[in-house]
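Field log, afternoon session.

UNIT: design team B
ACTIVITY: writing a sequence onto a fixed backbone
BACKBONE:
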């Protein structure tokens, strides 16, 4: 997280509700209890200095801003609320959480600052949106977007239109293109009876090909499907990654529920497929309970330079749910799908009338993360777990930690020996293979007797 060191300090008095909201967001960010975050009495900007100094001690660079200190003319997207900064702030309820144009700066505002319009100030729903937005934005590092499109433009065919970020859209595959519709300002496709699951419509970003990618879009459909004679899903909606042409790509798609020829209901599903030189391979096919029938859901596909991929699906406004993950050599550096473009994919093999909508498309290069970065250290303590960042400059907590903290039991009267076994793995072995890894790991143990066990008399 970055920010100017010359940002002027706020002068107005903050109320207890403002502080509670910001403290809750800080606790959520770092995985702490509320009472583990620094408290302050309502007052002026001294509390900003207090929290920023406290964050620095944890290896974070955090800047807090008042609304009139934000860059004019830029737009920020946070959970459920769009805030346009143009002198005075305005806010409105919108779609999923996004963050635009502020290139890796964390923006933190109390809910009182976020909702500047006094109309409906006492509406509990407004307060909920404000708190969610503050909690989402507080201290989070965001990656700059390489592609972003909310499809908020003149109606017509998507191919040839220019995205706000990412250049011209191009189309391939089936001739029936996506169109931008006028009412909801989404990209939609209504074509039916596509030849097969892999011969639908490809909408490809105009950005230059790149390797590590996060690709995400919101999607929904308008129809409930009946019987599938083939036993296969009848529609596919999703995202493309590493796209080179219609014969070389990686894809994650959502398919609605349908009926089998026996009358049984087949659940909705998420598929991850790759196509290399025209040959399609299914990497995952997972049933899901969520339904995007008339309800926007987000699908997200990530793939890194080592060939590891993951996919999530969740209802817009809810927490992301990971569906599957794995690795494939074709997706790694030097593989057939080592890089490519992001995009959107749609296919429907059934003849049922069905409108498929897409909104809030984005793609970017993810920030590399690891439990232990190459050449750096991780400390598992009796009360915490911290690690060095990739440069060895800062210490901070990893994104998640499972298991107990580190304690050595006393030797006791039998003078027992404790054996400590450590293994650092490159992959999540529950999802992907880990072969031919020859990394060396050095382990050091330091301890101080705590005398928590009373000696016998």
């Amino acid at each position: 997280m970055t920010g100017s060191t010359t940002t002027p300090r706020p002068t107005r008095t903050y109320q207890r509700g403002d502080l509670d909201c910001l403290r809750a967001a800080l606790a959520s960010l770092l995985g702490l209890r509320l009472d583990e975050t620094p408290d302050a009495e309502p007052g002026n900007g001294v509390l900003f200095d207090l929290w920023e100094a406290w964050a620095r001690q944890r290896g974070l660079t955090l800047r807090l801003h008042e609304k009139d200190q934000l860059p004019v003319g830029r737009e920020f997207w946070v959970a459920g609320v769009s805030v346009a900064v143009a002198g005075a702030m305005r806010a409105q309820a919108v779609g999923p959480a996004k963050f635009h144009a502020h290139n890796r700066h964390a923006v933190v505002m109390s809910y009182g600052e976020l909702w500047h319009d006094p109309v409906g100030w006492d509406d509990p729903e407004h307060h909920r949106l404000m708190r969610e937005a503050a909690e989402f934005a507080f201290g989070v590092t965001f990656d700059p977007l390489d592609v972003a499109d909310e499809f908020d433009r003149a109606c017509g065919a998507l191919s040839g239109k220019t995205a706000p970020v990412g250049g011209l859209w191009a189309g391939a595959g089936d001739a029936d293109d996506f169109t931008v519709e006028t009412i909801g300002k989404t990209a939609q496709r209504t074509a039916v009876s596509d030849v097969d699951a892999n011969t639908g419509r490809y909408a490809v970003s105009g950005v230059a090909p790149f390797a590590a990618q996060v690709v995400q879009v919101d999607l929904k459909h308008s129809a409930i499907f009946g019987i599938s004679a083939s036993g296969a899903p009848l529609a596919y909606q999703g995202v493309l990654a590493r796209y080179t042409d219609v014969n070389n790509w990686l894809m994650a798609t959502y398919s609605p529920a349908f009926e089998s020829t026996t009358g049984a209901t087949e659940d909705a599903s998420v598929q991850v497929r790759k196509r290399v030189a025209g040959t399609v391979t299914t990497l995952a096919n997972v049933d899901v309970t969520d339904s995007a029938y008339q309800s926007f859901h987000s699908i997200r596909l990530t793939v890194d330079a080592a060939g590891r991929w993951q996919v999530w699906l969740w209802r817009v406004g809810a927490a992301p749910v990971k569906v599957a993950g794995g690795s494939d050599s074709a997706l790694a550096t030097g593989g057939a799908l080592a890089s490519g473009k992001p995009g959107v994919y749609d296919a429907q093999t059934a003849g049922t009338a069905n409108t498929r909508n897409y909104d809030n498309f984005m793609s970017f290069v993810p920030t590399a993360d690891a439990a232990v970065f190459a050449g750096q250290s991780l400390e598992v303590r009796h009360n915490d777990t911290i690690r060095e960042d990739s440069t060895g400059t800062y210490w901070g907590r990893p994104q998640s930690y499972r298991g107990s903290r580190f304690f050595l039991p006393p030797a006791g009267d039998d003078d027992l020996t404790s054996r400590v076994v450590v293994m650092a793995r490159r992959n999540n072995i529950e999802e992907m293979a880990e072969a031919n890894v020859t990394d060396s790991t050095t382990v050091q143990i330091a301890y101080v007797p705590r005398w928590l066990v009373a000696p016998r008399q």
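LOG NOTE: The radius of gyration is 25 Å.
NEXT ACTIVITY: expression trials, pending approval
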